[in-house]
Specification:
The chain is mostly helical. The chain has 8 helices and 2 strands; from the N terminus they run E-E-H-H-H-H-H-H-H-H.
Length: about 220
């Protein structure tokens, strides 16, 4: 297979072809309109991986920010000025997403066709691996709410609430470790089975964080 990139976008100035994630036309050097492009990783010239070098990500962001900066296109055509604004905006979105490990993971799942339908998906049903912990937690929270409703002093139920938090926190640490392992396997060339496991673990992670947030609300109410 040829290693040369496919020309999937066309320069509006000269009509020449350019690789899908090129930012400037190889023929006339004009900035390309955003149009068709790949994904955040490719846009920034990064591999589609979950463990990225933060310093390299920052370097690429700053380099592209300078290249796209509207000040460089002050006297350019309207199309070029629009292209610089479009690319600057898209670059900011890409950087915000890729610099955050959780947003990066969610984005990777999305572009690989395994996106969740949103935060609500994490609360639709209890993941099988968490049934026991969730059942015990709900029972304890019901009893604590009853104590609070009867005016029992906080010092008599705050300790129970903290103890109820401990097994959920332990699950969180366990899931974070599993996610890190799956991320390393994906980066090493893992296939669809790794990605599916990653998605399942990611949804469970979101569910666990929702549980911990619920406990925090009880503690602060």
């Amino acid at each position: 297979m040829s290693s040369s990139p496919k020309t999937l976008q066309v320069c509006r100035d000269c009509g020449g072809g350019a690789p899908i994630d090129a930012h400037f036309c190889p023929q006339c050097t004009k900035i390309l309109s955003l149009g068709r492009h790949g994904d955040y990783f490719a846009f920034m010239g990064l591999p589609r991986q979950l463990n990225l070098d933060g310093a390299e990500l920052e370097r690429r962001f700053r380099t592209l920010s300078r290249q796209f900066h509207p000040d460089f296109f002050y006297n350019a055509t309207t199309a070029e000025r629009r292209a610089s604004l479009e690319r600057s905006s898209y670059l900011n979105d890409a950087y915000r997403t890729l610099r955050d490990p959780i947003a990066r993971m969610q984005y990777l799942l999305q572009i690989e066709g395994l996106a969740s339908s949103g935060p609500a998906e994490a609360t639709k049903q209890v993941p099988p691996g968490l049934l026991e912990e969730v059942f015990a937690l709900n029972e304890e929270l019901d009893e604590i709410r009853d104590l609070r409703g009867r005016g029992v002093p906080a010092e008599e139920w705050q300790g129970r609430l903290e103890r109820a938090r401990e097994p959920i926190e332990a699950k969180r640490r366990e899931h974070e470790a599993q996610l890190q392992d799956l991320a390393a396997r994906w980066d090493a060339g893992g296939g669809p089975e790794v990605l599916k496991a990653l998605r399942d673990q990611f949804l469970e992670r979101n569910y666990i964080h929702n549980l911990l947030e619920g406990i925090a609300r009880e503690q602060n109410s």
